Every structure is written in structure tokens, then in C-alpha cells.
Fold this protein.
Amino acid sequence: MIKHSRQRDAIRDNLMNRCDHPTAETVYMDIKEDFPNISLGTVYRNLSLLSELGEIQKISTGAGPDRFDGNVKPHCHFQCRMCYNVLDIPFEYPEELNAHASKKFPGIIEGNTIQFFGLCPDCMQTH
Amino acid sequence: MIKHSRQRDAIRDNLMNRCDHPTAETVYMDIKEDFPNISLGTVYRNLSLLSELGEIQKISTGAGPDRFDGNVKPHCHFQCRMCYNVLDIPFEYPEELNAHASKKFPGIIEGNTIQFFGLCPDCMQTH
DNA sequence: TTTAATAATAGGAACTGTTACTAATATTAA
DNA sequence: TTAATATTAGTAACAGTTCCTATTATTAAA
């Protein structure tokens, strides 16, 4: 675990201490309370760096901005097609997928992501 | 199957008659040979419309622009982390995932996507 | 068929999310 | 303490995509 700048640590801690999947903008607003002068660029730079280091996870959904997750254990995500909120799907991850895919694919499989979509509990009510 | 404009049909046909996963820009360049005045906006608008209708599939990878696929049967995609090319992974799709996820999730699961990443056969060589 | 209503277009401006640049500041190592 | 390095704030630039508007194409009605 490499040494981090104070800003980077704050960004990392913010993600570790929450269970949702905030956007860079949301993290930025949060961190601002402790670092009023922090810039959005710094947040983006450090979120990228942290996810390259494997300390956090980046979630790209294709609807709206990227999300970030302090939980790096493999797990599935769900995005609501109405409110675009991203939630965890808590089931045991199908670990065999990579091996399975490798058999059918002449390249190197390093990982995978599973994303579900539909309606979240909240939007289910409102139809 | 609704009636399409000539441009929309050309876009649809282009995707049906190829096996790769072109970007909107690539489709635009192709269609231009038959419709020299077609605009990029028209390509984007129709790609969106066609994927809402379920006639084509949109692939968002989080690295580079969206890709499009004329094959709407559920199948997995792979993106190379070096060249960003997107390829099919030809194995029987795990159809049980949705049902599995539904049991653990209080919202409505409508579908899922599985994406692999790693090195494609070409980039494997060059390291 | 003309005509009226509707749908779709081309072209370009505007927008969103993100990255890159730069001069200044902080950190570390000698 | 000083030199080298890392990181920052602030902002400009960028990529991809959507939106807008006046014009053109298509369709439906008379």
C-alpha cells in the first residue's frame, strides 16, 4: 500500500466509509467539507489512480457518469433505468466465468463485470 | 417491425451485415458512401432509436465510445485493455443469472450484461 | 394529384463528463 | 536549507453525445 497525499487519503476514506456508489462529483462535494479548495480535477485524478492501484473500483454503466466503489471484492451491480441509481446485488459471484470464457477465447481473459438493469425498489412503486 | 426512413434502414443494414462492433463514428463513415450528406447526429439518433426498439444492441464499455451490435441475441463481450477493440465471447449465455439475482434483490431485474476484459489475440503477441 | 399534417433530416451549437496543462505549493531526501 | 520530486488548484481543452432549428421528405386525406 503506497503512501498517499492527504487529499488522496480523504478520497479513499470517503469511499471506504460508505456503501453506495457515488460519482466523482458527489465525492468532490463531500471532500470539500474538509478540503474547501480541492479541485474536481484532483478528485478525478485520484479516483483514477486509486482504481488503477486496485484500492477502489470504477463502475462504468453507460448511463450517466462513472461511479466508484470502495468495495473491491467481486460483486454484481444493478442500475435502475429510471433514476440511474446503482446498487449492489448480493449473491456469490460466479467465479467460473473467466475460466469458462478462456476456453472459448484465443486472447487473455483478466476479469469480468456483471451488470444488471431494471427498476430499483423505489422506482418500482412509482411505476 | 416499424417502418424506417431510408437512412435508418441503411444504418440498421450496416450493422446486420457485419460481425464487429463499430462505433457511431465508424457507422457514419460507412453510411456516408451511400448517403454523402448524412449527418453524425442522424446516425446517433437512429442508433439510439434502434436500440430502444431492440433491433440492435448498444455496448457501453467505459473505455472509449459506445459500440453497436446487430446481433441482439444475449452474448458476452470482451474488450482489450490495450487496443480497446471489442470482440464476442462465444459461449452459451448463463440465462439463470436474472432469476438468481431477482431472488436477492427487492427491485425488478430486466436484464444483464457480462463484459470481459484482458488482452486480445493481437495484443497478446506484442505484449 | 394538390394539400395538409407528420416525421425525419442536415448542419451545427451546446452540453456532459473527463483529461490535460501550468504555475504554485507541499513533501521528501540529502 | 536546499534540491529534487510529487501533488495540487484552477482552468482550458477535449471527446462523445445530445439538442436545436430551419428545411426536406414522407404519408394521409380530400
User: Anything to note?
Assistant: Residues 5-6, 23-25, 40-41, 44-45, 48, 64-66 of chain A lie near DNA strand C (CB under 10 Å from a C1'). The first strand of chain A starts at residue 57 and ends at 59.
